[in-house]
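note to self — DONT lose this again. spent like an hour looking for the file last time. sequence + predicted structure for the chain T wanted, 847 res
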Amino acid sequence: MGLLLWKKLTQRQDLNFPIMESSINWLRKCVALEPGFKYENRAVFGGLQKIIPVWETKARTDQIAEEFVQQISELMAKYPESSIEERANIVRILLKKLTTQSQRHPDTHKEQPPISSHAVKSKPDTNLPKQTPKNENQPFREKRLPISKRGSPEGFGLDAPLTVIPGIGFKIAQSLNALNLFTLEDLLYYFPRRYDDYSKLKPINSIWYGEELTIIGSIQSIESRPIKSGKMTITEAALSDGTGTLRLIWFNQGWMTNKFSKGSKVVVAGRVDQYLGRLVMTGAEIEMLEQEHLHTNRIVPVYSLTAKISQRWLRKTINQVVSYWSSRVIDFLPDDILEETGLPQLSFALQQAHFPDSQEQLREARNRLAFDEIFLLQLGVLQQKQNWQSSEAKKFIISDDWLKNIIDRLPFELTVAQKRVLEDIRNDLITGKPMNRLIQGDVGSGKTIVAALVIAIVANQYGQSAFMAPTSILAEQHYKTLMRLFSESLLDMPDILRPDQIRLLIGATPEQEKQEIREGLLRGEVKLVIGTHAILEDPVQFQDLQLAIIDEQHRFGVAQRAALRSKGTTPHLLVMTATPIPRSLALSVYGDLDLSVIDQLPSGRKPIETFVLTPVNRERAYQLIRNQVEQSHQAYIIYPLITQSDNEEVKAAVEEHARLKREIFPNYEIGLLHGKLRPDEKEEVMTNFRDGKYQILVSTSVVEVGVDVPNATVMLVEGANRFGLAQLHQFRGRVGRGQNQSFCLLIPDHEDAVENKRLATMAETNDGFVLAERDLEQRGPGDFLGTRQAGFMELKMANLMDINLIEKARTYAMKVFEKDPDLSAPEHKQLKQKFDRFWKSGKGDIS
């Protein structure tokens, strides 16, 4: 019975709210399916939470009380994150509320016009241009609709499901869902991944060495063959366009002969090189070209696809949505901002971003949409900062003499950068507002010592501190460092932590000891607890938590940071990261945090010598490792994969660990570390390496944030081209922790000039900020964002390297925020709605 009802509901007329059915009854049918699916959130494809916007619009049209609408929406929003038992209870509550509402208002439905432009029955809009019949061979040449600020037609708007478009049923909607397309607005903002400017194509007989261009032609021949005794493959193809033939070359891409064959029509993009006097393209981008897509004298959008969705069909469908809806989208930017910035109207930007009339108009459109993203991002960041700083926090005021006395007792001298950051923090602690500061600095720059001094300041006025690290072994390392500091250097200082007031709380801590620590924290006897997620457990309560410190902040989720904060009453927050953050990213993404940078290494540290080696020179790397191990040092060897995949050219940790033990280093103890090991197994491997039981540690990227092993002097990274520069810099930071000269060796998968040039940057500089800028430019912001709020993932047009755009958007966002922080003014009504949608998936805490 449940399956039959499910099939019935998935017919398009039911999903689109049948004309004679109310929003209440429709939702009640959907919810009633959940018990049959064992509360697995499968009643609606994508989950109940996906239909909230659509249902809210219909419910308001049915004149359902707003309070009731919000109650139902909140219950559905909680559903995906709830346990099975909680979901069953939510379903019972929903059905009860919906049934009661239906009985009170049996006629809560009105006849609504269909959403599709092909079925609109309302009066014609006289402001729209007359439509001329389209030639099927040129389906993308509709004239741009005039700029308008009219609202959507009565009834559904852009939050309607895709099934309202003629020709899109449940199965096609499922395929589009795989592209995160659920509503008309999703489709309107699904921008092309590239554009083919067919009006400026160049024939092969006109190309020159050094040009970067696109060529369209057909494959005349293609074959793959092994080279270098079978260690590599080379794929060669001949591309012809009638004017000439161009040779194409790829390394280790043997699969291409299965995808492309003689006669295939393709689009090829890349740089023209020269080999033995002939023009070639090496490592070019290549895609199939459906012949019918070729339309001359225009810029054609190319969208990312998924199974069962063709480029031609998707382009045609998006063209329908853009042509009808772009002029009906209400521009949310205030008029004064549009006038001052000279940005085009949103309707123009949406139309031109999909189907541009020229490269200049495409640039204008993309610039407007990029501004929108950064502007909305900045508003959210500013709001987050205000929400946090609107609270009161305890002041911690210390004298210069007191602080100087502590610093003078340290066994080393602080760097100028450490002193500067400490002064920033000191100024935060006297404001009476909760500190929310991010310290960034390379591995070994001395962040932990700064944190220790802040802990001392808080302890001086009897406050408690919590120091959370992402792994047990890292927490243990911090515990030993802080215990040594407070027990040896600062023990005789009055009102400073005693060793018995510092405890370590990790998963492996015995239960009896855990109970002692919990009791000590609750009574205020324990002043500093260092640990992992164990600190967040419900039984852990503090008497007076005043300082929360989070190491490697990108490793912790929003909920975990919020949970730590909740252990106290607006405690001061200090987060630390060893990932250098480019200035443009710091302005846009971390604008809610006050940023301090430790850009100096302690004196005595020797720069790490970095070399890029070709695969054929791997034995040189092995010989360096042997030499260092014979001098009682240790080495890391990093691989990009855990086990061998279908691509046998990529080396993997498990297989290479066995080979190294058997063939290369038979006389050494070699450890193996990777992500599939249990937590206790990882801890054991790292502990053994730290204690010298292993001379060599074979690992995957899990070693990126790890224990301090001053005796390690060699970092060898295999498949280095598969890692970002920021990540490689993190690997390099694992060595060079002691006084001995250390080395970092990078070996790419193959001898590719472009990749080696990129990796050469590592050999040129040890400056993490230079590398971070390059990494952001090449790989995007993903590696830097960690677990920050989903709003940052909404950036589709913005380039986080565009510092001028970021500063401009931030300036205008601050102007709006200073005048109307809640966006409650009438002129900001549309901006508020857009802002709420942009941040709809956030969890409230973005630091």
